[in-house]
Amino acid sequence: MTTSSTTKKPQIKAVLxxxxxxxxxxxxxxxxxxxxxLSSEMKSSFALEWRQAYFDANTAxxxxxxxxxxxxxxxxxxxxxxxxxxxxxxxxxxxxVQEQVIAAWHNQKAWSDVAGALEKLRERGWEIFVHANxxxxxx
Length: 139
Prior knowledge:
5 helices; 47% helix
């Protein structure tokens, strides 16, 4: 197949990308709110497992045809399910700690290069769209 020299390549008009893991450092934001008595390795593993539990819960709900659920409800339920797997850790998650770690999903730090990268995309005249499976209340 040959292409004509008069054939124009399509112009990029918009960029669509994931938000929560691409623009935001969800992992450090969550790990920083976990009980300080846990090792760094345990905090990291726990955060990763909790995030996966959240995705698994959403997938299960969709498969059952159930309605969308508030993200805080899903995070709270999956946190409790995860803590049932780690009974030694459960006492560390007082009511205050539970509230802090669930709220941490709303207060995630952006990666340091995000603002500059977004500005460069806008300077090119591209519209920017993000897809997020989180909450609209992320600050």
